[in-house]
Amino acid sequence: MRGLVLPVLVLAAWEAASHCGLVDPRLLPPLERVLSAGDDVTGLRHVGGDLIASLRRDLAGFGLGTLCGLVFGALLGRSRMARALLGPSFDVFKQIAVFAWIPLISMWCGAGEAAKVVFVALTAFTPVVLNTAQGARSTPPALIEVGRLLRFTRAQMVWRVYLPAALPAILTGVHLALIYAWLATIGAEYFMTTGPGIGGLIIEGRDRFAMDLVMLGVLLLGVVGYALNRIAEAAEYRLLRWRPA
């Protein structure tokens, strides 16, 4: 509950500033006006549709980027040849700011839904690769020796030795990818062709000078991002229950 103290204080200061004339209500509308921006049936359907569109885009890009990142990261982590051939190129790739890829993605994939999903996947890809490769390389030699003494097959080594040892690092990468994917989703909606989504809602509010819509979009971004983070934390805790405290 202590985590609610700062948000409640910020909301209270927001309300006080709006109602006491400390700020122009056209620039910072009262909280109740922001919440009422989606009160009517049409508004709720519009905002709900934007939220669903953003979540669908986010999860599609996150799933694609995470899957590719797991495969590539495991390859880098367990294969010296792959690390020698592909590692330097990946080190260059990860230094490029993700928003620098938008012009290329727009040219290659168009400016529609496919381009946005590819951009989100690209954002999720890097943290998964880095953490998966690190986890795959950090398997204790003692565990590998035990597996060999027990005559584990290659599949058993992967499932019973390498994967459990790498799982904490892998889940950290997936957790980061989920957060970055949500941020990239809004960036894609904002910088690419405007369409359904929270980013489109914010742009619409900006163009109409409807700050209640803009602030509603910002609040939705924070709430959904917080919910995704808590879901990732709960999944990580559940999957790592076997670890000693």
How does this structure look, described?
The structure is a single chain. This protein has 245 residues and is mainly alpha-helical. The protein has a single domain, classed as MetI-like fold. Helix content is 78%, strand content 0%. The protein is built from ten helices and no strands. It has helices at 5-19, 31-35, 41-78, 80-93, 102-109, 113-137, 141-149, 154-191, 198-207, 211-239. Helix 3 (41-78) packs parallel to helix 6 (113-137) and helix 6 packs antiparallel against helix 8 (154-191). The chain is elongated. It starts with a helix and ends in a 6-residue tail after the last helix. The model has no long low-confidence stretch (mean pLDDT 85).
Mean pLDDT: 85
What is the overall silhouette? elongated
Give the SSE string.
HHHHHHHHHH
Tell how many strands the DSSP assignment holds. 0
